[in-house]
Design a protein that fits this description.
Elements: H1 4-13, E1 22-24, E2 34-39, E3 58-68, H2 73-88, E4 91-95, E5 98-105, E6 111-115, E7 121-135
Parallel strand pairs: 1-2
Antiparallel strand pairs: 2-3, 3-7, 4-5, 5-7, 6-7
Length: about 140
């Protein structure tokens, strides 16, 4: 099963941010030019196929990304859209021996959420990752 940690590792390997500036969960210090990965809170029942969980071929992991960039709105927007396009085009990626089949964006474009208390512009991307239940050798 793909976890939030696997998604964080995937984003860190994209080269958009330094590895140490890609995080999951809450950090005491948010660095400029960083991306945070969070579980996307959704309501509703789990997705279980007919016949039970043992018949499921894939899992769905809803994720929210916080792009915490700098004091320039245009540069923040550029980086958020770069990540958005990569996620939108994602197909059959292996990370930590786990297969991500594809990603469905949950927003039409990165959402501007304004600035933090220090004036750093932030944007949010929401996506669902469809992942194979079977592990795969990394390519």
């Amino acid at each position: 099963m793909v976890t939030l940690s696997d998604i964080r590792d995937y984003v860190a390997k994209l080269g958009i941010v330094k590895n140490e500036h890609c995080y999951m969960g809450k950090l005491n210090t948010k660095y400029e030019e960083s991306i945070g990965c969070y579980h996307l809170r959704r309501r509703g029942a789990p997705r279980i196929p007919l016949g039970g969980k043992e018949n499921a071929a894939f899992d769905v992991l809803p994720v929210s990304f916080l792009i915490h960039w700098n004091k320039n709105a245009a540069q923040t927007d550029q980086k958020a859209n770069e990540l958005y396009r990569i996620l939108q085009d994602l197909k059959n990626v292996t990370v930590n021996n786990k297969q991500i089949k594809f990603c469905i964006m949950q927003v039409p474009y990165p959402q501007d959420v304004g600035t933090d208390e220090t004036g750093i512009f932030e944007m949010v991307i929401e996506a669902e990752f469809y992942c194979s239940k079977a592990e795969k050798e990394e390519e």
